[in-house]
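Submission sheet (multi-component)
Chains listed below:
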Amino acid sequence: MTRIGKQTIGLDNRPVIIQTASIVGPKEAQGPMAGYFDHCLEDEFWGEKTWEKAESKIIKETVNLAISKSGISSSAIDFCFAGDLLNQCISSSFGLRDANIPFFGIFGACSTFVESMTLGSIFIESGAANNVICATSSHFCSAEKQFRFPLELGNQRPPTSQWTVTGSGCSILSSSGEGPCITHVTPGKIVDMGIKDANNMGAAMAPAAFDTLMAHFEDTGRKPSDYDAIVTGDLGYIGKDILEDLCKTKGYNISHNYDDCGVLMFDKLEQDTHSGGSGCACIATIFSGYFYKQLQERKIKKLLLIATGALMNSTSSQQGESIPGIAHAIAIES
Amino acid sequence: MTNPIETPSTYNKYVDKKSPNSPILKNCFNAFWVGGLICSIGQIIFDFCKYQGLETASANTVVSIVLIGIAAFLTGLNIFNRIGKFAGARFFNSYYRFCEFYCFTCYRV
Amino acid sequence: MEFLQSIDWMQLLRCFIVGGLICIVGQILIDKTKLTPARILVVFVTLGVVLGGLGIYKYIIDFAGCGATVPLTGFGANLAKGAIEEVQNSGLLGAFVGGVKASAGGIAAAVFFGYLASLISKPKMKKQ
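Outcome: structure written.
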């Protein structure tokens, strides 16, 4: 691998994404992307007693599904990179405690999925691993309980708020095999432009996405039109709009081939999800379900995937802190 | 186009312009009539208690107990949060809030 | 039927209007400020305590009945009234005892019904 520019790494051996899997909750199953996911749940508990246990089950089953679809045995998986939104990432650790795979718990808020794929790629590229699993999950109910208010409280949600996706997405990276491969990774810096409104995450994270996107283009010398699709994780309608504006200030026009998983996940009018979907699983499920298939079928040949995260917790919000954002980008070719 | 991301202050102003506002007139209208309705239900309960001969202080206590009981019942049926979304502030303005906080500390576990 | 005839309908109307107006104030605070619901709750109760303590709130209660006592400002005024009465009865200690004593019924109901509801029903996902 070669270091390119300020913060991009070019992967010469190109880790291959050999398989993915995605499981989503009932609200996502009623959305426009429903047909692309591997499995849709009928309720948020999936037979478990609590939402946290349900989220652990979702990530566990998603990982198992990806492994069985890939045809390689779980003993051939060298490392697992996983994380989620819950305190101390208990969803991933409890969900994957029986997986018997050396485990890296990581936290990047909603950018965790691409962060895990970045780290996994470096492990494969360096020869430290042949196969890695990258997984993440989120659950609307457990996230609301932790970050906002109990669901029963009946608070009003402002138009800028987003809906945390219930589900899990997983991808298996390998040093060999057939499939779309990762060519570049651009890890992002923490960017905080002083947004304090926890109900407007898109605005809080857009500057970080902008920073990473600009770093990627400047480092690689690429332009937006070099990609068939540029996809962000969960900026939502408002964050998407802001990112397009910000890119124009630097002379980059991304509006022709840019979309956001938070916008894609739900039907804004029918499902009343205001500014769109959010959560670690938003980009994980839509990439694993939809974009991966598009790459396999070569309908998309070059994809720039940027996961965005808001690095805050309920304490920092209550203490009046602003919301720092982060965004990690990977370039995938098929 | 001036650079909106130059400083946190310019970015915050830019975001305020970009972010849609809540439909405040509709929200206020709903808060008004739902809030008024709940107070009126309380008033009828109060008048009934006085009619039955209770003192004012006791009647007030009965009103709060009954309203809280109804709130807990509606929460249990998962209807309360729909009313809250519809009528917002109403539910910040009554004993309901009180009850809600307790109900969900139980739920939190 | 006799009860229905005994209701003061003008009082009911005043109750409806004042209760609704207090809620509009709350709604404006939600929509126009960054105050969290918990902070708005505290503002309302505190305002009620201040107005109750100054003797102003009782005029609003006389005018609007439950339109003034049901909202959280009424709760605050009730706390103030209870504290003042208890101080008159038992001295300084009454300031600590009186507020809770006056609202004891409501507090106990919240605890009791809240617990009951959590035993009987299960946490559910919201639909919207």
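Remark: Residues 2-174 of chain A form a domain with the Peroxisomal Thiolase; Chain A, domain 1 fold (CATH 3.40.47.40).
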